[in-house]
C-alpha cells in the first residue's frame, strides 16, 4: 500500500505509541454489545433481536411490533422507514452460520423481502447495501426500500458509508487481492490502496471520514479520496503467514487500543497476543 498525501486528509492524523504489552493465551473479549442494548436505534425506536424474533420497542418500553425470523439477529440497519436485519442460522448450513437477511417495514414490522447476505449497511431513503463472501461470492448488492436490486459490485468487506460507499475488503485468500475501494454507480469499483491482510478487522472511522485500518501489523489511515498514510508499524507479519494473525481496533476518546492475536505455527490450540495503546493526534 503506497503512501500519498494528495489532499493531506489522511496525513492530518498521527499517533503516539504510549504502551505495549505481550501475553500468552487469547485476549479478553473486547467491548461487546451489552445485554439489552439494541441492535439499532432510530429516534425513539429501538430494534432488538433474540433467537427467532425481532422486536421494535419505543423509549417508553412499549413493544411496537414483533416479527418472527428463522435465525438469530446479529445486526440491524435503519433507513427511511425500513430496517434490514442480518442473522446467524440456528443450525449449521452449507453457508456455515449464515442466516437470512430480512427487510422489514419500520412502522409495523411487516416483511418486505427476505434476502441473502452476511454484512449490511444503511444508505439513505430506505436503501441498503448487503454483501456476501465465500465459495464464488465476493459481492455487494444495493436494494431499494421495496427490496428490489438496483446495483451490484464485485467487492465485499467492511462498509464505510459517508460521501459514497467505501469498502475495506476482506477476501480471506492468500495471497490477498483486497484493497480499500469505493463503489460507484453502475457496478464500477474505484480501486484504492492494496492490503496485505486478507481479513482485516473492523476499521475505525474518524470525524473527517478518515478510515483507520489495522493491516497485517501496520496501522494505516485512508482518506476520503483513498489516499493512504502509514501511522505506525506495530508488528512485522509475513503476508504468507497472515492467516495465523487476527487483529482488533478499539477507540476510547483519543486513545486507540490495537490487539494482534497470533496462533502458534505448529500447535493450533496455542495463542499469544500483543497490545499497543496509542494516542491519536490531529494535525501535523
Structure description:
This protein has 284 residues and is mostly beta strands. It has one domain (10-282): 6 Propeller (Neuraminidase), CATH 2.120.10. Helices cover 0% and strands 57% of the residues. It has no helices and 25 strands. The protein has strands at 13-24, 40-42, 45-50, 53-58, 63-68, 71-79, 82-93, 96-98, 101-105, 111-115, 119-122, 128-134, 137-143, 149-153, 157-162, 164-169, 179-184, 188-194, 204-205, 211-215, 218-222, 228-233, 245-252, 255-263, 271-282. The strands form 6 sheets. Strands 6, 7, 8, 9 and 10 form a 5-stranded antiparallel sheet that branches. A 4-stranded antiparallel sheet has the order 1-25-24-23, with no helix packed on it. The radius of gyration is 20 Å and the shape is globular. The two termini are 21 Å apart. Mean pLDDT is 91; it is low at 1-10.
Could you name the key traits of this structure?
four-stranded antiparallel β-sheet; globular; five-stranded antiparallel β-sheet; mainly beta; 0% helix; disordered N terminus; 284 residues; Neuraminidase
